[in-house]
Amino acid sequence: MRVHSAADHEAAHHEAAHHEAADPELRRLAEAVLIPPFPSQQAPPWILAALADGLAGVTLFGLNIESPAQLAELTAALRAAAPGAVIAIDEEGGDVT
């Protein structure tokens, strides 16, 4: 049985990072199916940039929603970054309707 060292782990990490940078198509394909959450009532800049770059969409939770007017502003900002983005709502933690 081989015990992996920290150097082995670091080498594997570098190789994975190299493959990510070397294959932008793989990154594009992965982002095209992801719909991550974010922890605020406004779209953070990294979400807007990712949407503009091809992120499939976002998942909203109760913590993202304060009022109908705020939700309309949030979804408008998300749609401005990517008109075809999926905007999903997850109610697992409680009612968000």
Oligomeric form of this entry? Answer: single chain
Tell me the strand order in the biggest sheet: 1-2
- Taking the alpha carbons of the first and last residues, their distance comes to 54 Å
Residues in β-strands, percent: 5-15%
- The helical percent reads 40-55%
* Low-confidence runs of at least 5 consecutive residues: 1-6
SS-based class: mainly alpha
The H/E string reads HHHEHE
What is the typical, i.e. mean, pLDDT?
82
Main attributes of the structure:
single chain, 97 residues, mainly alpha, two-stranded parallel sheet, 4 helices
Descriptive notes:
With 97 residues, the protein is mainly alpha-helical. It is built from four helices and two strands, in the order αααβαβ. A two-stranded parallel ribbon has the order 1-2. The N terminus is likely disordered.
How would the blueprint of this fold be written?
Blueprint: H1 6-22, H2 24-31, H3 45-52, E1 57-60, H4 68-81, E2 86-89
Parallel strand pairs: 1-2
Short description, anyone?
The protein has 97 residues and is mainly alpha-helical. The protein has 4 helices and 2 strands. The longest helix is centred in the first third of the chain and has 17 residues, at 6-22.
